[in-house]
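notes to self, project folder thing:

trying the whole complex as one job this time. last attempt i did each chain seperately and stitching them together was a nightmare. two parts in total, labels are on each line so i dont mix them up again. if this works i'll redo the older ones the same way
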Amino acid sequence: MRAVGIETEYGLNCSGFNKPIDFAYEASNIVRMANLSPIFRGWDYSRETPRRDLRDAQEHQLKIDPRDLSASNEHSSQMSRFEIICDTVLPNGARFYNDHNHPEYCTDVCTSLRDLIAQDVAGESLLLDCQSARNASGLPGKIDIVKNNIDYNGRSYGTHENYLVKRDIEFQDLVNELVPFFVVRQLICGAGKAGWDNATADGQRFQISQRADFIEQVIGIDTTTNRPIFNTRDEPHANHRNWRRLHVIVGDANRSEYASALKVGMTALVLDSIESGHRFNIQLDDPVTAIKSISRDPTLQTKIGLSNGEMASPFDILQQYLDTVSSVAKQGDEYLWIVQQWTELLHLLRTDLLSAADRIDWIAKLSLLQQLEVKSKLDNNALKRFDLSYHLLEPKLSSYSALIKSGAMRKLIKQEDAKNALTHPPKGTRAEARSLLVRKFGHQLETLNWSSATLRTGKDSVTVHMDEVTGNNVNDLIAQLRNTTDGKDLIHNATRKDAG
Amino acid sequence: MSAYETPSFCSVSKVMLETEIPSKPSSPTKPSEIDEDSELDEHLREIIRKLPDPTPQPGGE
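result (full assembly):
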């Protein structure tokens, strides 16, 4: 699989607080509770370009949502920026920090689906441990951590997928080919949303996607407001000449490991097809309206308008994508697995929707809701609590965990593998190099980020570049780091090389 | 076996199909098949009763 990573902002559901909640303080506390060793605290922001736009390669001011919550800063106002953000690099090479007052866990890129899902589920395990430590620490109130994208009060936070894409693919081709796919893929990867809030039409009891309500434009660079289907952030965290990072913000946070794997796997196959010159030739008349109307019809009867004036069902569009990616010659078990699951689930969606409840989040949630509402309908507040319960990490409170425990949902990753992935990076990737840097030379690390690290001893320093994410250079670096016992040797060798 | 020693995702899927296929039918909650007094049902009702209403939170990203 191409290089893909997932970044997840977790929600904080708070109870028992007798004062307004200082979310910056609480999110940083959660991150600080990470009880893993070794870790590196800090992050080098000098190579970050979140405002650089793919369309014109210029920096733009990002908009701030004027409707955002005005939270307390009683404690955080006394903290430094370093303390609030609490940037942490974990033993598996992942990044864990406070982003916009949400604890965020970011995997580095992985090149196998299994590694990626293991790394992602490892994040859930980490956050659950942090929650337990925080709630046992004597701090006031209780926090339940949520893997979702909504606060049920009209605000959203993100789960982003990051795909490395060759830079020589025309930008407009990427937009044309991906936007219709991003609109319809929710049928398989939507997380479901029960209840309505300020962002939803009143009385919308259930919909397929959590994010659809918050999508306001087709293309754009903003992420906290005016959220687009296609985000144009140009920040590859890799060799800029060779790579774009396709920063996908339109997706939902999945609890189902199948849905998460298919969200990424299907998108990766569509990108493979685009890179190999195939075109899907689907253009939607109004993608923003379409993504909402599909989401708001869990009966799957909605048809959406194409730019040629015809109407199409989301099934037909997903089928057309599947037919094309299947026709592109590929090899490998992962490819076969994705195509097989995509085919099977599309068939179940057409013929026996609830039979897909063992793999698709929104259908699992809908099935449960139908079961609970046989006698009487839940009111809107109960609907929201029902929805929240699906996404809580605490197994005793989570309906998703109850489904797993009852054997009603399938898993891909064993719990011990997820735990293992917290301390083991995906092999053969630059995350392995970063992990070695933290493990072996942490005390000599001066700066660290996705694509570089600087080690220092006294006046001497060396910067290790990780602009490629896999391949010979990465393997050479990993071997060099394994074979070096002291960071001084790395610095010395680099200095000698420069002098030579 | 660690997550990284697995030979392939497809093989994992085959292993999963042999060992981790849901022990109940994959659509146990079809309305026509509902046992309203089921343990899961009661457990979820209790969770919904006990949970506090969702907290307003800052937007993210």
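what i see at first glance: Residues 29-53 of chain B form one domain.
need to look closer tmrw
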